[in-house]
Structure prediction request, 778 residues.
Amino acid sequence: MAEPNARGARIELSGWGWKHSGRDTHALRGVDLTVEPGERVLLLGASGAGKSTLLHSLAGLTGEDGAISGDQEGSLLVDGRPADRGRGGVGLVSQDPETQLVMARAGDDVAFGLENLGVDPGLIWPRVERSLAEVGFPYGLRHSTGALSGGEKQRLVIAGALAMRPRLLLLDEPTANLDPAGAELVRALLSRLLGETEATLVLVEHRVADVVDLVDRVVVVEPGGGVIADGAPAAVFAEHGRSLADQGVWIPGNEPVPDLPPAPGGTPLVEAVGVAARTPFQVGVRAAPRRTVLDDVNVTLAAGTATSLTGPNGAGKSTLLTMLAGLAGPHRGQVVPRGPLAEADRRPLVRWPARRLARHVGTVFQHAEDQFVTATVRDELRFAPLRAGMGGAETDAWVGELMERLRLTRLADVHPYTLSGGEKRRLSVATALSSGPSHAPDLLVLDEPTFGQDTRTWTELVELLGALRAEGRGVVMATHDQLLLRCLTDVRVRVADGRAVASDAVREADL
Amino acid sequence: MSGSESTRAGGGAVGGDTLTLDVPEDGGARYWLMSLNPAAKLLAALTIGIGLIPAVDAVTGGVVLLAVLLTVPFSGVDRRTLVVLGGPFLLMGLSSGAVNYLYGEHGLEGAAGAAVRLLAIALPGLLAAVSSDPTEMSDGLVQRLKVPERPAMGVLAALRLVPLLADQWRTITLARRARGLEAGRNPVRIVSLFFGRLFALLVRSIRTGTLLATAMDARAFGTGERTHARYSRWRAADTLLLAGTVLLLVGAYFLSARLGTLVLLFG
Prediction:
């Protein structure tokens, strides 16, 4: 990226504020901030503090013809002029690579931004090849973007941003949606690139420890307010570390320490016997044929035990979870109930009627919205008990207790889709708990339960799962979260290369 | 990363996946149709479609259908695609014929005419679609047929989301079961549950679409005049395809008229 005129951009915000259209309160207000050319800034704040909005505004996406509508106040200048995406001085990389790739082929995707800037066609391909080389993209120009792993896709997204020769690089949690291997790939790339470029960098990242070496300045913003801390990383963390951690920010050395009762252990609840699974049937005429992702997998889930499935993305963790939860049938083999569960129904879980399954096995999906079926938080929680034949008064008491426990009481009449990410996660866990007989199902199945959560929701969630485990419920989750693996994992099952290998997790200082 | 391996291995002779189609360098005549400009193929298909509207007899349509079928071995379309699309295609022709035979006024002859005409109109469009790389198709539409950029690029970007949508649909279906919702055999519940899932999918797809639109905007899409990294080449063969198509139509009408079989729609 040692391009000519690659000097970084200067950012000046004064009294800047933003209110999303249709909201009563400002996401940010009264922000005064100057970033000098070439500075690397980590932007921190509790979730909902408008960090992404600030990045989008710097990228010129909130202007008059921008994609994001709302009311702006104060001034926001990039190099002394209002941010304008048409000049191409800004590169934005967001969380999910899946929704940032536009074209079907790698080279075409990198060329997309250059075409939009009206770069002469003769100059486009050398710049594309150079950007791909810079990010270490291992395939050719014509490689299909659909056939890349998450980490490779995100590299391609970064190449697309670099090709536009940005003087301001905006990174919005660029590794949040990646598995550890993919995240490492992208972080290694970023630290190498930042050594070569003079572009100004503004980075948003929840997991501070991973990126603190990349930046030389930390700026903390407050929801609905402005800048509350600003300075060198060490100084900011020393002074504000504790309070930031309390607000939910992941600060190095201030990781949450959940209060967990010991795991009682217990008899097996569910057993997967010789299970094999194939990829789902693909739509489209040239789609890949089905292939086997899991073969001859044997897993036992016991009561009072937390089991974690780990392994790279695409290895079949989620597929295995849906089978263990009795939602989908394996291609070969069986998932059968054992012990107390077998008393309810002896058949393989996938043959259970949905209502019975929901009473005994609660599932929390990665995208919480997928499992919402009613129009308010309260109805969402009343749904299962009422269907299970619980009386009205009894249901309301139980629902009230659940809402209290998961801090949802205030939101009882809100539509589930309008909740924030953390609130959605809490509600999805509550719905899974709501269906069980004596106040929770026997087995709780969770797909990436802590994904993208701030430290507060994280702690609540882990303590709740710990309490359920102590009551003798089985907990099984697919996760990449190292802290969760350390704190709340009794059995670790590594899913990779079509196999699942169990090992007793080494339990460390958390007890 | 295992995903990329399998996709490449599984794509068959003409590698790629649903959204990429590569013509082999030394493919020869087998890939003749694939190497033509998608805009030319689309124009040819459109010409046949419109050209066959007036003729309802089996001979005119049959001649065109036969000629188009003769190009299939040179279309480069792989066997799996032909099998996947062939079934519904024949079914469409047969059902149209059957309905016309049972309820039409022109007996077996009229029914055969209707079926053949439908197939002859549909097949060229189908061939144009499956023998074209979507990216080249959009390039051809924009550069040769002067279709506006925004819809052409938008459709191309949206195509990328189709496999994503299929995944989301599967997840939503599983999530309903997890909540204890299952239709069983009650038709009313089947319908109401279906629309519930459809709504959930709609919400998800709007969110996905918004994110994609934001990413496109962040890369300066729609800020001014675009240049084109890829040049959509129009060769002599493309002109020949169009000329051949017109000749075929004229020939088919001429032959049918000479044989005395020509029946016109408003004749």
